[in-house]
Each structure stands twice: as structure tokens, then as C-alpha cells.
Amino acid sequence: MTAPQAELAAIAAALCDPQRSLASLIGETVQLRQLVERHSRLSMDRQDGLRDGESFLPSGWAISPVQAGLCAREPYRSAAFIQGLALAVREQLGAGRPVRVLYAGCGPFALLALPVMAVLSATQVQFAILDVHAETLAYAHDLIARLELDSHVTAYICADAATYRIPAAVMPDVIVSETMNTALGKEPQVAILRNLHAQAPAAALLPAAVTVHLGLDRRTPGEPCTDWGRVFALDGDALRAWQGALGDSLPAATIRLPDVLEQAPRLLTRIRVYGDIVLGDHDCSLNLPLPLPGKPGLAGGSMLDFHYRLGGQPGLAFRLRKTPESIQEEMHKVNSQ
Question: Which of 89, 119, 115 is nearest to 102 (CA)?
């Protein structure tokens, strides 16, 4: 075992230990990030070119290699997804063949896969590594080879995961795709999971569920955010319900605002990675409370009808529902003119 392999093995043993809390793994996720940055051909010290290589696809924004690499600098987020993936794979062991994992949107480091490869043999787990950018995929391929883990990879696939067709002979047991932004906006997480889950409905999904709620940000770090209700969910039930759905949007909830608004409403993103492993409000950049699109001025008691917009600029949108009171007020204004 080479020195980098030994270092990775020690880090991976901790990250894939289901008994460790996410908070206790911050040090190991930092060590993992430092290891991959040292051994990758991608320089993360660049002061310019942050967006070089990004793409705007029919399903959303595909971030650049450097932007994807920067995700490794969020230790709590990395720990949650790595521990979740290890748990999902271990639950599938014992089928008489390696567990098949499709990693859609691997980024330049294939960060979530490396620890799982390090703790499980190639006879236990095999990865199909996919990214839409050839440059990003090449960085991941080179890093996996340098760490001598390429026996764990059945295929490196340069494709758009939102349209990719999975070969029938290699349907995955686990699908992992961390191609999202706050409130499921901008990036193609929804489109990717809709496409892949429809082809492999029995596969375990990571994240298992992403829900977006409407509420208020916390007043102080020790307080919870205020939750007025769930606006949208991306999970197995929703994906099954959307099968065959046409059009440029998906249904979402209607939320009535409180009569008195203390502050501007926020979209709150909660992620159940797998099992009991969750990322809640303020845990990472994906969980930061987000202003409503357009930062509208809203009156207390307003009814907001939400929907999820598909296409090149995906994300939640809403319209203000007219209440009997607002209609009466408009009529009064007209009659008084």
C-alpha cells in the first residue's frame, strides 16, 4: 500500500463508520479534502477562471471543475454524503455480485466514492463514474488511478445525467447525485433524478429526500428557523408520482402567510441523505435560508401558489393568489376612481 493509499484508508475508516457523528468527522473530511487536492491535477489555488468550463444545459447549470472541487471544502456536507453512501452500499451487500453504484456528477475528485472504495473491495462495490464535462471526468479518472482504485470503476461516462440511458445489463443498486443548489434551484438535481430513477426505480437514492419549506430564518444561532409548511419534495414517492408527467413544471404546495410578517419569508432546504443522516438549516451552504425569487414585498395573510419550474433555469416559482379580501379591495379602488 502506497503512502497516499494508507492515508486515504485511515480517513475512510472514520468517515464510513456509522457510529461516528457528523460533527466528530470534521477533521477527517478536512484531511480528505487536503489529500485529494494534493494528488489531483486540478489546481485549486487559482485566483481566476473559477467559472471556466461551466455549462448551461437544457436541464440547468453544470458548474465548472473548480466550482465542483470547492464543494469538498464543506466538511459537514461531505461527511454526511460519504457516511450515507457507505451505509447505502453496505445495505446492498450479499447479493452474490458487487454492489453497482452510479455516481452522477462526480466532480473532479469523485469525493463521495473514494472513501467507499477504500473501505470496500472491488469485489464488493463497483462504480460507474459520470460527469457531463470531459475535463472534470478526466481529473476524476486520473485521481482514482493515482490512488490505485481504478479496479473499483467499471466505466467512466461523459454524458448529461438528465438524458443518459443506463445499459440494461448494469442497472445500479445505488444512485448518488449531489448536483444541487439551495432550494433545488439552478442546478439539474430534479431532472437528473427523474431520468435515472425512472430507469432504475429499485435503486437506493442519495440524497433520499430533499424538501423545501417556507418560513423565517432564525433570530439567533441557538434558535430554530420558523417553518410554515413544506413547499416541495424530491424523493422516491414524488419521482413515482411524476412518471409520465409532461409540461414545463411540477406541482408544489400552496402556503398562506401569517397575518403578521415579522421579516421576509425564506425558503428552507432540508436534506435526508440516507437513513437518519440529515442536513438541516444552516448545516452547509445547501441549507442556508433563501429569499423568495425576486425578493417580493408580501403582505401578511397572502396566499402563495408554488410550482417547480423545469428547463434551463430550474427552481421554485410562485404566484400570489387573489383572496376575496384583495379582490374586494381592488374593486373598491376601481369604484373610487
Answer: 89
CA distance 35 to 11: 10
Comparing C-alpha atoms, which of 89, 105, 110, 91 is closest to residue 158? 105
In degrees, rounded to 5, the angle at the alpha carbon of residue 129 between the alpha carbons of residues 90 and 311 is: 110
Q: Which three cell numbers stand for residue 57?
A: 444545459
Euclidean distance between CA atoms 242 and 234, whole angstroms: 10
Whether 125 and 116 have beta carbons less than 8 Å apart is answered as: yes
pLDDT band at 47 (very low <50, low <70, confident <90, very high): low
Mean pLDDT over 150-166 rounds to 98
User: For residue 89, what are the CA distances in angstroms to 7, 49, 76, 92, 134?
Assistant: 22, 36, 20, 5, 27
pLDDT at 164 > cutoff 90: yes
Alpha helix positions (H), the chain: 3-15, 26-39, 65-70, 75-92, 113-119, 134-146, 189-199, 236-241, 324-336
